């Protein structure tokens, strides 16, 4: 009777939670379970699928490397069928061979040190492969349930077939899958089977502890078969503690039970160690018997088993069946997560919590809330390193239904481009993907996420989001400025942080200079504003490293990171129809190796509730009525053009007719077209070998550029702002002018424009566009609370941003908005903003100190200012992507998007064309999604073909460039203006991968150095204290910089003509376009300069 009572109580204690709970944990841990469980076991033992489904999954499982996918497909079928009893049946099947997974389904239990133990195994993989004879430990591991029968047979066959290393690796990969104490069992098997040295290499402390516990003062003997001798176990204290635990357990299960009546208590093989491992005698299984395990943790007292919360002590029982002898782990008391469920547990099944469980080295803690409002709150105690970025509590990311739809492919591990409107919360989708990715990867490999952005301001914004919502993980923001100021690099953080938010150029530089050996160091890469991943953009250059690994067909391709792209608009390029638009989008997919494009299809109604769509308005205005100043500038430009065309020196040019065609200027002055022509003229002039011709053409071209920019400002801003710009630029030109006959003529033309009576007559003439802009701003802010309103005005150039900001500050009705300009930082001179100034401007804009920003395109993408309710494009329209991006800056309810366009200029028509292209893009995406669904193989082939073509193009370009550099050797750098020799390409070195300095002791013989008396601090590595000019012609060549207390000439490449060994001449505007490589400045370079300069560090 007592035995029956005990059996009843044990049965009750072992009863499963309801099917809803098992289903919940199955959904929550689906990725981890899919990668652990062998699908063949499910196919053999679960008869829940029809024959067609079983065949489909069986064939998938046969495909190389598809086991996890097959298992996942099988489990998803179970979730779809949802038949009564199916989840209990699944649990029973897993209980036999996957005890660890069965516990996950019952209790949501993941041992706290699971990940660290697996990492330890990976760390010593080489030693294990080299030292372990798998024949020695295979029987014991099978006997203890660490590996299952199919794995035992497979590994045994691999041992017979050879090489042994293959069998050892298969064994190591199988070990962590089945029981929770796999690590301890594995080490003891090594120790007891003549591999003590290997066991101590892996975990010396554990083995020492185990050896100390083996010697027993009194107790029983456990007979070990095979090579090992009889062992005595020290069970004095442990048996006492274990007995107390068992008594406590059975008393709670049935308080009326009589323990004295329990027949043959030792038949249940209660473990004499606190690891919960039994010590069976082998019956019908391969030889192998384990001795008791040492205790690192003291047992905790048990509590009553409840329907809503199960808490029991560890009791290991040996269960016997006809075919096998297995141990059944009922529960592991103090270390697992305990979750309280309400009767309606279905409330969790579709929520974002289903994937939020984490495997962390410090374990999972539970927080049981009130039954009326039950919620899982997984708290993780991370003690990673000294980072100040990490908060010590977990944040559960909850997504809206449309966000779940966007995230679905990425959560399944696919490479995907996510396309959703601005303001829809793509960042939150990305954070959820990161969260799930780290959860899924931990325990199998080290997850490493890199979030790539284009701008420092975006890096800070996305970094703040990661730190706020992913507090469990360490996040680091890294930009070029951070690297220089902190004197660190990306490689310094890659092993210390889970999430890196990085400006793209930083990662590209790290790959180029081998600071990071491979793109495979990352497990997930997120590209913010991924529509840029075309041609020579930094994103695409980074992806070229990915493609090289993928297309090499090496084993490294299995370690490639998952790719996720985020954008509001993929664009259509120059497409004229939907077919061409699809081709454009497929190229973007190929560049990002994307399998799908994810858009909101099923939850559009919900999306519209959360995304504010601004009202759109295009306003046209007339030109100035009184255009005296503009006409005067145009006349001056015509005269300069005429002077160039009739230059006698042109007859010296080798092919004067060809060059005359280049000199033909566009009729539309004050336009982008004219700016492009001036740039082309600069490059063509550099090819002329006659220095007299270049010396004549260059000042003319320089003045034409100044006047063209003056007209651009004049057209869109006040006349006085245009005059101020013109005066400033001409003043700079005068500093380096040699005032020959030609330059005296140019000076005379300018003096007519700066006459006081002329300036007085034109500087206050009204500009209709400014008047219309003022009305737009007042209308946009009308009726809005000042504290809750913000506005952005997008303009064409930095100079125009400065002029419009000045006008706003001088306008009584608008100056209270405290406007500020926001321009890019990647330029030389004082017109750019520093990174710190950009960050401050955005902060003050968010805080409301500045209500209005006047910005160039740098502010179009990604910047999230929720209060922004007014966006104006000021007579400047580019493509449909820029339209979508700039319109998306209006995040507030009832926001307005306005385009102000001058009549006859074509701006309004371009904006309407962009709207048409946006519609074309949407249709193309829908058709492409249909193509992927109906014929994925064909689309995949097309994407692969594009990848192959692009890789071939890159290789040919690299080969040509390398061959060109080898043939050309060193290059001469000559003054662009007068052709004077300045230095050789080998005399140039790089400081902090950003500044190009000359390390030549006779540089001063050809270049005039002027100290300004003030210091301009760019970053902590260099300060600018002067300027450089050609001694012969005064051409501006750069600045004087102080680096490590030593003065250097810092030159700009646009001031030089580059001449190769064959006397071919070229120019470039940026250093990365130079036809030669520039090496980093070394300590040897410093020593050489110090030796030559003596005690004086100055130039």
From TrEMBL:
Q: Where in the cell is it found?
A: Cytoplasm
Q: Which GO terms describe its cellular component?
A: cytoplasm
Q: Which residues form the RLR CTR domain?
A: 957-1088
- Enzyme kind, highest EC tier: hydrolase
Report domain Helicase ATP-binding positions. Answer: 407-588
Disordered: region residues: 276-322, 356-375
State any single GO MF term: RNA helicase activity
EC numbers, comma separated: 3.6.4.13
Its GO biological process annotations read:
defense response to virus; innate immune response
Catalytic activity annotated for this protein? ATP + H2O = ADP + phosphate + H(+)
Query: What residues does the CARD domain cover?
Result: 113-205
Family, per entry: Belongs to the helicase family. RLR subfamily.
Protein known as: RNA helicase
What organism is this sequence from?
Answer: Sinanodonta woodiana (Chinese pond mussel)
């Amino acid at each position: 009777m007592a035995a029956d009572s005990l059996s009843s109580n044990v049965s009750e204690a072992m009863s499963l939670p309801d099917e809803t709970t098992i289903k919940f944990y199955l959904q929550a841990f689906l990725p981890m379970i899919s990668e652990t469980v062998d699908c063949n076991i499910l196919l053999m033992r679960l008869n829940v699928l029809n024959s067609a489904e079983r065949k489909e999954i069986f064939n998938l499982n046969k495909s190389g490397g598809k086991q996890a996918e097959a298992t996942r497909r099988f489990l998803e079928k179970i979730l779809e069928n949802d038949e009564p009893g199916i989840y209990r049946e699944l649990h029973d099947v897993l209980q036999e061979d996957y005890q660890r997974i069965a516990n996950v389904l019952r209790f949501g239990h993941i041992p706290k040190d699971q990940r660290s133990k697996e990492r330890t195994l990976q760390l010593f993989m080489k030693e294990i492969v080299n030292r372990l004879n798998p024949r020695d430990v295979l029987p014991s591991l099978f006997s203890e349930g660490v590996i299952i029968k199919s794995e035992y047979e497979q590994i045994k066959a691999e041992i017979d077939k050879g090489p042994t290393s293959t069998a050892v690796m298969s064994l190591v990969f199988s070990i962590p899958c089945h029981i929770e104490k796999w690590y301890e069992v594995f080490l003891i098997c090594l120790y007891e089977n003549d591999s003590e040295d290997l066991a101590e290499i892996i975990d010396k402390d554990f083995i020492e502890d185990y050896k100390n516990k083996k010697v027993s003062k009194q107790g029983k003997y456990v007979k070990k078969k095979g090579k090992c001798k009889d062992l005595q176990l020290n069970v004095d204290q442990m048996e006492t503690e274990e007995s107390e635990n068992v008594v406590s357990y059975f008393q709670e299960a049935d308080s009326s039970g009589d323990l004295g009546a329990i027949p043959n208590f030792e038949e249940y093989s209660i473990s004499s160690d606190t690891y919960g491992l039994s010590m069976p005698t082998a019956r019908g299984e391969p030889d192998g018997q384990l001795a008791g395990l040492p205790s690192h943790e003291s047992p905790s007292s048990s509590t009553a088993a409840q329907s809503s919360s199960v808490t029991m002590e560890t009791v290991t029982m040996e269960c016997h069946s006809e075919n096998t002898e297995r141990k059944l782990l009922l529960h592991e008391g103090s270390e697992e997560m305990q979750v309280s469920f309400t009767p309606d547990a279905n409330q969790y099944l579709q929520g974002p919590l289903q994937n939020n469980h984490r495997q962390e080295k410090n374990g999972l803690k539970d927080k049981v809330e009130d039954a009326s409002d039950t919620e899982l709150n997984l708290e993780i105690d991370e003690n990673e390193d000294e980072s100040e970025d990490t908060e010590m509590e977990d944040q559960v990311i909850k997504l809206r239904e449309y966000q779940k739809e966007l995230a679905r492919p990425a959560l399944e591990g696919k490479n995907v481009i996510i396309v959703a409107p601005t303001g829809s919360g793509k960042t939150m989708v990305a954070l959820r993907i990161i969260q799930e990715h780290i959860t899924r990867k931990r325990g199998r490999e080290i997850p490493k996420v890199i979030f790539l952005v284009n701008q420092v301001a975006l890096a800070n914004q996305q970094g703040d989001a990661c730190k706020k919502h992913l507090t469990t993980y360490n996040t680091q923001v890294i930009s070029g400025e951070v690297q220089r100021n902190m004197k660190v690099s990306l490689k310094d953080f890659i092993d210390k942080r889970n999430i890196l938010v990085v400006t793209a150029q930083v990662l590209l530089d790290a790959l180029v200079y081998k600071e990071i050996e491979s793109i495979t160091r990352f497990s997930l890469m997120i590209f913010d504003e991924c529509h840029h991943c075309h041609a020579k953009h930094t994103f695409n250059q980074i992806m070229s490293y990915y493609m090289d690994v993928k297309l090499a067909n090496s084993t490294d391709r299995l370690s490639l990171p998952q790719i996720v792209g985020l954008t509001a608009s993929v664009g259509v390029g120059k497409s004229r129809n939907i077919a061409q638009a699809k081709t454009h989008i497929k190229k973007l997919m190929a560049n990002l190796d994307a399998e799908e494009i994810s858009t909101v299809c099923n939850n559009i109604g919900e999306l519209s509730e959360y995304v504010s769509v601004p009202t759109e308005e295009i306003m046209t205005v007339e030109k100035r009525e009184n255009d005296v100043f503009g006409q005067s500038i145009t006349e001056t430009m015509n005269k300069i053009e005429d002077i160039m065309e009739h230059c006698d020196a042109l007859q010296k040019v080798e092919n004067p007719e060809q060059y005359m065609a280049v000199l033909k200027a566009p009729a539309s002055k004050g336009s982008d077209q004219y700016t492009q022509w001036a740039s082309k003229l600069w490059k063509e002039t550099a090819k002329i070998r006659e220095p007299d011709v270049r010396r004549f053409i260059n000042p003319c071209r320089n003045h034409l550029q100044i006047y063209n920019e003056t007209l651009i400002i004049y057209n869109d801003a006040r006349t006085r702002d245009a005059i101020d710009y013109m005066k400033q630029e001409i003043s700079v030109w005068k500093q380096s002018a040699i005032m020959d006959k030609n330059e005296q003529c140019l000076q005379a033309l300018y003096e007519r424009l700066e006459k006081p009576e002329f300036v007085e007559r034109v500087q206050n003439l009204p500009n209709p566009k400014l008047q219309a802009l003022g009305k737009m701003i007042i209308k946009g802010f009308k009726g809005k609370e000042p504290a809750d309103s913000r506005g952005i005005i997008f303009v064409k150039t930095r100079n125009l941003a400065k002029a419009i900001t000045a006008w706003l500050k001088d306008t009584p009705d608008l100056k209270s908005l405290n406007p500020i300009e926001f321009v890019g930082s990647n330029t030389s001179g004082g017109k750019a903003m520093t990174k710190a100034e950009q960050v401050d401007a955005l902060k003050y804009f968010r805080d409301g100190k500045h209500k209005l920003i006047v910005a160039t395109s740098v502010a179009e993408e990604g910047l999230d200012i929720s209060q922004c309710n007014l966006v104006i494009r000021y007579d400047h329209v580019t493509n449909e992507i820029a339209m979508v991006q700039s319109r998306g800056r209006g995040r507030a309810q009832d926001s307005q998007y306005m385009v102000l366009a001058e009549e006859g200029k074509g701006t309004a028509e371009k904006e309407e064309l962009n709207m048409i292209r946006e519609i074309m893009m949407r249709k193309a995406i829908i058709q492409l999604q249909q193509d992927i669904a109906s014929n994925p193989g064909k689309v995949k082939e097309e994407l692969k073909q594009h990848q192959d073509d692009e890789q071939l193009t890159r290789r040919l370009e690299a080969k040509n460039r390398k061959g060109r550099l080898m043939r050309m050797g060193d290059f001469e750098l000559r003054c662009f203006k007068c052709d004077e020799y300045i230095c050789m390409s080998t005399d140039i070195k790089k400081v902090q991968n950003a500044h190009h300095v000359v390390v030549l002791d006779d540089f001063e013989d050809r270049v005039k150095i002027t100290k300004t008396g003030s210091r301009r601090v760019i970053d902590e590595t260099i300060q600018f204290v002067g300027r450089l000019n050609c001694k012969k012609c005064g051409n501006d060549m750069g600045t004087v910089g102080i680096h490590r207390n030593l003065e250097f000439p810092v030159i700009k490449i646009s001031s030089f003509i580059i001449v190769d060994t064959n006397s071919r001449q070229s120019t470039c505007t940026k250093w990365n376009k130079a036809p030669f490589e520039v090496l980093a400045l070394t300590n040897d370079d410093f020593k050489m300069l110090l030796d030559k300069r003596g005690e004086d560090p100055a130039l």
